[in-house]
Design brief:
With about 200 residues, the chain is an all-alpha fold. It has 11 helices and no strands.
Length: about 200
Amino acid sequence: MNTTENEKLTTRDLITLAVFTVVFTLITMVINFIGAIPVLHPFAAGIGMIPCGIVWMYLRVKVPKKGSVFIQIIVMLLIFLLLGSNWWQLLIMAVASVVVEWITQPCEKDVKRMTLGYIVFGLFFTAVANLPPLIARDYYYASCITSMDPELVNSIIEFMTVPVVIASLIVSVFCCLLGAYLGRKMLKKHFERAGIG
C-alpha cells in the first residue's frame, strides 16, 4: 500500500473516530453536571478537558490522518445538535474544527501539534459554553428555564462576568495541558509503537 493510500481515512478509522467521539462527548456531559453549582459552572467545560485529553491523544495516535480532527469535532457537534444545542454555538465550533484541524495536521509524530490543537479546541469549547450567560443573558435565561431551576439560572447569570470568563479560559488551558499529559502517560505504549517521543 502506498503512502497516499495510508493517509486516507478508512472505514475502520471512521468507526474509531465515531465511537471515541461519543465517549469524548459523554465525558463532557457528565462533567458538565458540576455546572449545577454556580461558582463551578464557568469552569465545567475546562475541567472536562482533563479526562477528555486521554481520548483526544488516543485518537491522534490511532487515526493520525488528515481530516480526523475535523470529523471528530463535527460528529461531536451533531450529537450536541440532536440534544438541542444552539445553532450559533455549533457554528462557532464548526469554524473551530477547521482551525484545530489546520493546527493539528500533520499531527503524526508531533506531540506539540496534538497538544496545541487540543488547547485551541478547549478554548473554543469553553468560550462557547460561557458566552451566552455573559453576552446574551435574556436568551440564555429563556433557553435554560425549561430544564433548569430559575434561581440556578439567575445565579449563573449573575456570577458570569468578564473576569470570570477570562479565568475560565485560563483554567481551560491548564486543564488541556494536564489532559494531554495524562493521555501521553496512560497511552505510553501506543505512542512508543507509533514512534512518538
